[in-house]
Amino acid sequence: MFKGVLIEKDEASDSKSYNVSVKSLDDSVLMDGDTVINVAYSTLNYKDALAITGKSPVVRKFPMVPGIDLVGTVESCSSGKFNVGDQVVLNGFGVGEVHCGGLAQKAKLNSDWLISLPKGLSAKQAMAVGTAGYTAMLCVIALEKHGVTPDMGEILVTGANGGVGSYAIAILAKLGYQVVASTGRVDEAQYLKGLGASDVIERNTLSEPGRPLAKERWAGVIDSVGSHTLVNACASTKYGGIVAACGLAQGMDLPGTVAPFILRGVTLAGIDSVMRPTKDRLDAWQRIAETLGAETFDGVAKEIILDDVIDTANQLIEGKVQGRVIVDLS
Question: Is the pTM of this model over 0.90?
């Protein structure tokens, strides 16, 4: 037996009741996979919070153990890709949505979904990074590949108090970029400036309907919000700039025009972290290990235990959680 968060739904019931609890589980819950992992840490991401609260139809199979991240030790691996005792990391691949995930003390996964714990990171630090930090680095790499350099001007980071936003600020600042953070919690500006933001702006300046084209300001943008915020970010990006879009906290809609793209040559780059090829994952994780230090991991993440997950998920949905949440499964 092992402990985990389980989401259950009675499809036969007229009410289709949705129930989430922390309970003792057995191996019958685990799905197909060639690698069994004893999970040390997981995380609580926005997508996990949506799954746990049922605010969005993230979960597509029931019962489901949520958790799109995990780090742990290999108990067995029939594919031969990993040895017993190896430490491995998982992000994405539909885990926590269609395949039981990281918010339990044991997981059974496909070895092709896993990478070795990056050198220079502890297991706990890897989950302080998690999908949020890994996605932030993918966004930064997209800006770099587009040719955006620190001397080209300000970089906007939206959803700045969230996990992706926090890591995007920290990474960009370490690389010498001038970062402007957009947030709905300007009273927490000191936290963002501590990560490296040079300025903090109120999210309402971007989250309301705006003009097709606004004054050019941003050399690049990392957006985890979507909807009007993403549209306004595109509208105020400099000629030839790039907007890396990786989230939908405000919404999935894109209520804008093609004006920034055809009149200013702005590039809108979609950043997917779920099905990313292994090489991209390894590159992003190694860059994180090389760029950030322990002080960033400690400053961005807080730690909870499994019994706190459901309450914390509700707080995350309400916008009351700052930075990253690590879940200790030991």
Answer: yes
